Recover the amino acids of this structure.
């Protein structure tokens, strides 16, 4: 029978299907020929027909193998497409003309922050920022009205309301149910934020450039390309055109005061700035009015990738600074003349004659009678202290060698053997040839000042060490309360920097000590404690001693940090209050006994236990207050007083129903005592014991339920196997028997019998595989799950299997439990869910196995399932298997929205 042409096929019949029908017709024809009576044919013809049938059988088997290969290739290609589509880093949506989401990939659901089942059928515009939904509608209209792709950037929303920027690419596609928009969404939030940050940075730079109080110009090549208002004010210009576009040396004279051409100076400075990264120079420039000004310029090149770099130039007017420097130079010259003419003592040393000529004061400081003539240097050297002579002479030689200034302090011995301290300051004088010819300087006797300085230095050193090492503060105030000084290590404890209070008024800072300070500021003295608040911490306590100085010009306040002592005092009180609060609010009965067994502490719970108040029992022996405790308790109490810890559990109350635990803890003895007391703690454990008993009963009930579920599951499995053997294998074997019985006395019909026997064998293998999947034991969970999915025909239920981390074998009990769980969940989907697609995920991570089965079926109410008891079949059986592995089954379902069943176990 020839295969019909594609255009002659009935509706819905593919070419492949037609080819299979043609092969079946040919096979039926051959079968009729074989089963016809062989009387009209010779044995040779019968043999030929049998051989032809065998040839056709081989051809059919070969064609069947080719079909299987083609099917495997098609499934592989489809799997690759699904992986590319599902795990692409771009969100893909399929939208209807109304903007409804008909299909989306995994990335798309992650972008919108929801599972796919919740997104399918919803309007995409709901995930667009409200202000841009009209713009999105216009974009969707352009997509459906054009053949070309359309793009747009919009702020989108996650399901939780948070936003992100998306780049949308849309293309219209013709589908059997009408046109559809294929929409690709790329998250461009990071790029948009970077662009916004760059724009903000440019705006800040422009504002800084424009509003800067310093004069700033931009130079490219040798021309100004931009400037700010401060630059125009600096040169006295009114409009930018007076500077922008002009050469760099425009607002300057042709030559600088040193004779260098201004254009050469500017070009050389720009070249050095480009080469070195920065350059500074000073130049004489002109205002627009012609006034000369000195300008300091700092040049910084900015590389823009062009041929000529952009140079950022900061101008500062240094005219006044240069004039001040000149005035300072003149002042120093006048000061030198004044020192030479003063009575301090001026001398001149001529290196050529080695003689010193000095005034009377310069000779008196050596203890000599003044003379008008010169004095030999050798005579002066005899007056130097032996320990200082080498140092002074070395300093003189060093100054002569460098022809620099000289300043020395040294000792001299007068003729009466008294030691005096002298200070020498001078400078080496050189001739026109640069040779040192002498030394000119001044001398001053600083003996008295040195003694006073040493005494003051010692006292200051002692005070400084005290202030540096001890938590003290020394403060000096004017009579009006203004700070003159405030130093000391104690300032750090209140977060005040040394010197930061100078110039401020004490009344505005420390208002809590105004009465004491007012008394001192009026000429008195006071000793008082001040609490200084500290931000973020407790106040600091200072003990202050304040008094007027002897001259009556200022107030001196010495403050010592006594915070630790105050804190210790407060801490003791807090600890006492806290201990008392713990005792009174404890849920346990707490009793403290002294070394003689008398009650010291009796908390509120003890009063509730025994119905006696603290006042009634304090100071009384415990056994006198509670005689019902008996001799046994007296013996235990004696052991506790001797140092043994006693613990007694689950005792029965005598005063009321219930049970309690008793703990007798020996307390350390006070200093000088041989023994301490005892801490008695009684804890009511009635409720704890009741809960423990209930928990034991609950575990027994759960174990009974699990055992019942296992037995029920076993019986159900046996029943299913029996039905499979009776209805499947038994029926096939019976049909084969009937086929063989019919052929009795007739020519054999092996084809039909063989087919029935092959079907019986296949059914037997199926039952065997379901009972004990040997592929699981031989090849592991990955291969077993793949085989399980292949056994479910795609026409019955398309199953998408996603496996990760199953390259290594897992424990046998885990593999069989997971396999049975997935098998049972897929059976439930096929029986009850009315689903068209199933996703199976099995992922193995270190020490953890994750399993989930997701379908798009009719769903159900999980609350109804949770209320049902364990019956040993369906989800209850899966829940039992997971519980035995230490996991917990999670069910997420909604009517009409599909079901997700997942669990995870430790491996």
């Amino acid at each position: 029978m020839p295969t019909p042409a594609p255009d002659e096929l009935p509706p819905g019949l593919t070419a492949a299907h037609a080819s299979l029908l043609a092969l079946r017709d040919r096979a039926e024809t051959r079968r009729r020929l074989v089963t016809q009576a062989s009387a009209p044919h010779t044995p040779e013809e019968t043999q030929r027909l049998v051989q032809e049938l065998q040839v056709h059988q081989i051809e059919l088997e070969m064609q069947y193998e080719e079909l299987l290969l083609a099917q495997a290739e098609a499934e592989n290609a489809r799997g690759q497409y699904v992986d590319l589509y599902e795990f692409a880093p771009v969100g893909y949506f399929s939208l209807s003309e109304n903007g409804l989401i008909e299909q989306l990939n995994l990335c798309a659901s992650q972008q919108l922050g929801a599972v796919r089942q919740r997104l399918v059928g919803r309007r995409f515009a709901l995930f667009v920022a409200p202000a841009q939904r009209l713009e999105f509608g216009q974009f969707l209209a352009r997509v459906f009205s054009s053949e070309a792709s359309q793009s747009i950037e919009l702020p989108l929303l996650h399901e939780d309301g948070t936003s992100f920027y998306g780049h949308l690419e849309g293309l219209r596609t013709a589908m059997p149910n009408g046109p559809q928009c294929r929409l690709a969404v790329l998250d461009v939030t990071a790029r948009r934020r970077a662009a916004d940050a760059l724009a903000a940075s440019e705006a800040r730079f422009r504002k800084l450039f424009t509003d800067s109080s310093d004069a700033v110009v931009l130079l490219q090549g040798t021309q100004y390309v931009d400037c700010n208002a401060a630059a125009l004010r600096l040169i006295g210009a009114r409009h930018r055109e007076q500077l922008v576009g002009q050469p760099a040396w425009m607002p300057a004279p042709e030559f600088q005061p040193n004779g260098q051409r201004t254009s050469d100076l500017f070009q050389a400075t720009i070249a050095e700035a480009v080469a070195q990264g920065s350059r500074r120079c000073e130049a004489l420039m002109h205002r627009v009015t012609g006034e000369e000004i000195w300008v300091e310029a700092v040049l910084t090149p900015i590389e823009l990738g062009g041929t000529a770099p952009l140079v950022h130039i900061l101008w500062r007017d240094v005219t006044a600074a240069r004039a001040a420097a000149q005035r300072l130079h003149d002042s120093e010259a006048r000061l030198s003349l004044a020192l030479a003419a003063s009575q301090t003592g001026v001398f001149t040393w001529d290196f050529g004659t080695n003689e010193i000529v000095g005034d009377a004061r310069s000779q008196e400081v050596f203890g000599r009678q003044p003379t008008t003539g010169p004095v030999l240097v050798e005579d002066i050297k005899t007056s130097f202290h032996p320990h200082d002579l080498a140092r002074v002479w070395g300093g003189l030689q060093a100054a002569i060698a460098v022809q620099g200034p000289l300043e020395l302090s040294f000792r001299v011995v007068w003729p009466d053997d008294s030691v005096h301290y002298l200070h020498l300051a001078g400078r080496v004088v050189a001739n026109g040839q640069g040779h040192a010819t002498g030394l000119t300087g001044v001398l001053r006797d600083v003996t008295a000042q040195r003694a006073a300085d040493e005494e003051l230095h010692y006292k200051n050193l002692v005070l400084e060490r005290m202030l540096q090492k001890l938590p003290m503060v020394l403060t000096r105030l004017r009579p009006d309360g203004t700070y003159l000084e405030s130093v000391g290590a104690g300032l750090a404890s209140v977060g005040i920097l040394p010197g930061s209070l100078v110039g401020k008024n004490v009344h505005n800072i420390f208002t809590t000590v105004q009465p004491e300070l007012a008394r001192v500021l009026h000429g008195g003295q006071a000793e008082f404690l001040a609490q200084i608040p500290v931000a973020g911490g407790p106040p600091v306590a200072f003990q202050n001693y304040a008094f007027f100085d002897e001259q009556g010009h200022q107030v001196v306040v010495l403050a010592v940090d006594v915070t630790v002592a105050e804190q210790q005092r407060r801490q003791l009180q807090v600890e006492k209050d806290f201990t008392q609060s713990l005792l009174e609010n404890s849920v346990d009965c707490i009793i403290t006994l002294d070394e003689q067994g008398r009650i010291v502490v009796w908390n509120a719970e003890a009063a509730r236990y025994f119905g006696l108040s603290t006042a009634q029992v304090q100071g009384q022996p415990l056994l006198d207050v509670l005689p019902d405790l008996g001799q046994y308790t007296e013996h235990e109490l004696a052991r506790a007083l001797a140092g043994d810890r006693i613990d007694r559990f689950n005792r029965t109350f005598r005063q009321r129903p219930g049970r309690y635990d008793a703990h007798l803890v020996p307390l350390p003895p006070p200093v000088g005592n041989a023994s301490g007391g005892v801490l008695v703690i009684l804890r009511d454990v009635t409720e704890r014991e009741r809960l423990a008993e209930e928990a034991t009963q609950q575990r027994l009930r759960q174990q009974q339920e699990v055992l019942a579920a296992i037995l029920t599951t076993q019986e159900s499995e046996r029943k299913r196997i029996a039905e499979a053997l009776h209805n499947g294998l038994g029926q096939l074997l019976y049909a084969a028997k009937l086929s063989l019985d019919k052929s009795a006395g007739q020519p054999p019909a092996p084809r039909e019998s063989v087919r029935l026997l092959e079907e019986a064998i296949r059914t037997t293998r199926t039952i065997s595989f379901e009972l004990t999947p040997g592929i699981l034991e031989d090849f592991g969970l990955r291969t077993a799950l793949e085989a399980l999915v292949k056994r479910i025909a795609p026409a019955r239920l398309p199953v998408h299997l996603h496996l990760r981390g199953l390259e290594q074998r897992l424990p046998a009990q885990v593999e069989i439990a997971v396999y049975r769980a997935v098998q049972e969940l897929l059976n439930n989907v096929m029986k009850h869910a009315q689903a068209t697609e199933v996703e199976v995920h099995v992922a193995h991570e270190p020490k953890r196995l994750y399993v989930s089965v997701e379908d798009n079926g009719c769903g159900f109410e999980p609350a109804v399932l949770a209320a049902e008891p364990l019956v040993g079949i369906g989800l209850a059986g899966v829940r039992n298997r997971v519980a035995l592995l230490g996991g917990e089954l999670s069910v997420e379902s909604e009517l009409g929205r599909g079901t997700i069943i997942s669990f995870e176990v430790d491996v």
About this structure: Residues 586-684 form a domain with the Beta-Lactamase fold (CATH 3.30.450.20). The CA atoms of residues 113 and 160 lie 7 Å apart.
